[in-house]
């Protein structure tokens, strides 16, 4: 304990630390650092609990997972979380520049100048603004997208029968991916709305923890958080249909024409290389197909009370299709290739075959 000092024969309490003006200036920063460390600690605990649950749901790599069993779908869901959540978080700087180029083209005129503006105004840490809603939103989307795609692909194949499933396999890929994306976007939409607002309005919030309550308080819960759901479907459903159907077709063509040996005789490293190459090519097509809706989603989530007509009027049809497209092709191509690589690597890790290069599964009674 601190001893009290005598002054003029009286006992005097020591000076409180808070009375020091320098310490008073440091206190908000200390509180902020403590809050961040606590948030990271809770995130670590949550991740440990999730991984502990998956440990019981997914057999170890040495154990055989039966195809289309509950453990199979659990593994696909976990692979989707890792493939989408991690990759989208990694390209947050590119996504940040792209969104600002769509919203404020006069200020963010090009990719290089966009990075320069962000660096000058927000510093290096500004490049990852909005990474938390990006990670959580796209992890939830990836879980639903890949897990339900494997489910619907098997379900529609069984409905069609072996002959029609083989003959019309591309239609099955399209139907399965569209069905999965409808569900996945419901999980993504609220976090996507907060992400866009945080990224395009620097003074709005620091991240998800303060941005989400502020967004709900200002705009309402269901009304504004899900206002972009229909445009999000318009962006993501064509994107996902192209992503899965073109990937399955490209991988099949690679094994048929570019690699002399059948897929079963290829090494796992070669199969994963095919997955990345097929995913990158598919990603280029995905970016072109879904880009107009991506511009629309960014516009609606940024401008309060805006409509689709306002977006078309301000951006123009040409701008709706082309503004930010080169950057998005690079971003989505790399993103999609990495997603398929991570997803199939996880499947190989737990003892499952890679995706594509084989006919749809036959009916099992």
From TrEMBL:
Role of this protein: Transport of phosphate groups from the cytosol to the mitochondrial matrix. Mediates salt stress tolerance through an ATP-dependent pathway and via modulation of the gibberellin metabolism.
A Gene Ontology term for the protein's cellular component: mitochondrial inner membrane
Top-level lineage group: Eukaryota
Transmembrane segments: 71-91
GO terms for biological process, alphabetical: mitochondrial phosphate ion transmembrane transport; response to osmotic stress
Assigned protein family: Belongs to the mitochondrial carrier (TC 2.A.29) family.
InterPro entries: MCP_dom_sf (IPR023395), MCP_transmembrane (IPR018108), SLC25A3/Pic2/Mir1-like (IPR044677)
Protein name: Uncharacterized protein
GO MF: mRNA binding; phosphate transmembrane transporter activity
Keywords: Membrane, Mitochondrion, Mitochondrion inner membrane, Repeat, Transit peptide, Transmembrane, Transmembrane helix, Transport
Subcellular location(s) per record: Mitochondrion inner membrane
Spans of repeat Solcar: 71-155, 168-253, 270-349
Membrane topology annotation: Multi-pass membrane protein
Keyword Chaperone found: no
Principal location listed in the UniProt entry: mitochondrion
């Amino acid at each position: 304990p601190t001893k009290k000092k005598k002054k003029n024969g009286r006992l005097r309490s020591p000076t409180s630390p808070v009375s020091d003006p320098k310490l008073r200036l440091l206190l908000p920063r200390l509180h902020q650092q403590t809050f961040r460390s606590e948030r990271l600690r809770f995130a670590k605990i949550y991740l440990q609990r999730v991984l502990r649950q998956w440990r019981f749901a997914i057999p170890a790599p040495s154990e055989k997972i039966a195809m289309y069993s509950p453990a199979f779908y659990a593994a696909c869901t976990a692979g989707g979380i890792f493939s989408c959540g991690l990759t989208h978080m990694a390209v947050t700087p590119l996504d940040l520049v792209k969104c600002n180029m769509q919203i404020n083209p006069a200020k963010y005129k090009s990719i290089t100048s966009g990075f320069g503006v962000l660096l000058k105004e927000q510093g290096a840490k500004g490049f990852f603004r909005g990474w938390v809603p990006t990670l959580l939103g796209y992890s939830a989307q990836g879980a639903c997208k890949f897990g339900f795609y494997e489910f619907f692909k098997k379900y529609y194949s069984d409905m069609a029968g072996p002959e029609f499933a083989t003959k019309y396999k591309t239609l099955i890929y399209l139907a399965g991916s569209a069905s999965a994306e409808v569900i996945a976007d419901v999980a993504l939409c609220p976090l996507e709305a907060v992400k866009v607002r945080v990224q395009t309005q620097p003074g709005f919030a620091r991240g998800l923890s303060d941005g989400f309550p502020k967004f709900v308080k200002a705009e309402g819960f269901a009304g504004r958080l899900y206002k972009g759901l229909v445009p999000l479907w318009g962006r993501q459903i064509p994107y996902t249909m192209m992503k899965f159907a073109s990937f399955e077709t490209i991988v099949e063509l690679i094994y048929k024409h570019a690699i002399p040996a059948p897929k079963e005789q290829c090494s796992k490293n070669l199969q994963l290389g095919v997955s990345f190459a097929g995913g990158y090519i598919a990603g280029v097509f995905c970016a072109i197909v879904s880009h107009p809706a991506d511009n629309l989603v960014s516009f609606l989530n940024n401008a309060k009370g805006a409509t689709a007509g306002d977006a078309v009027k301000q951006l123009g049809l040409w701008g709706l299709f082309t503004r930010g497209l080169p950057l998005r092709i690079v971003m989505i191509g790399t993103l999609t290739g990495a997603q398929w690589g991570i997803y199939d690597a996880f499947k190989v890790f737990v003892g499952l075959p890679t995706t594509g290069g084989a006919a749809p599964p036959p009916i099992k009674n």
